[in-house]
């Protein structure tokens, strides 16, 4: 699972979801869904988001182990 700190970074820069969406070329709904963890971004989108925030990609997105494999 990929966790993100998009909302925190947006707040730091004073950006609304609409602003970030425009800067990376997606719809506002996409940003909202990413922030809520409904789906994972493509590598290109994750890269572009981190670039807007001016931080390395791993400061915005982190991969956490999927524990479902342990339950099987």
Automatic annotation (TrEMBL):
Coiled coil: none annotated. Signal peptide: none annotated. It comes from the Bacteria. The keyword DNA-binding applies. Keywords: DNA-binding. Gene3D superfamilies: lambda repressor-like DNA-binding domains (1.10.260.40). This is Helix-turn-helix transcriptional regulator.
């Amino acid at each position: 699972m990929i966790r993100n700190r998009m909302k925190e970074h947006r707040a730091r820069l004073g950006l609304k979801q609409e602003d970030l969406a425009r800067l990376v070329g997606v719809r506002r709904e996409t940003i909202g869904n990413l922030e809520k963890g409904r789906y994972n971004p493509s590598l290109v989108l994750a890269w572009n988001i981190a670039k807007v925030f001016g931080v390395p990609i791993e400061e915005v997105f982190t991969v956490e182990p999927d524990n479902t494999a342990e339950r099987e």
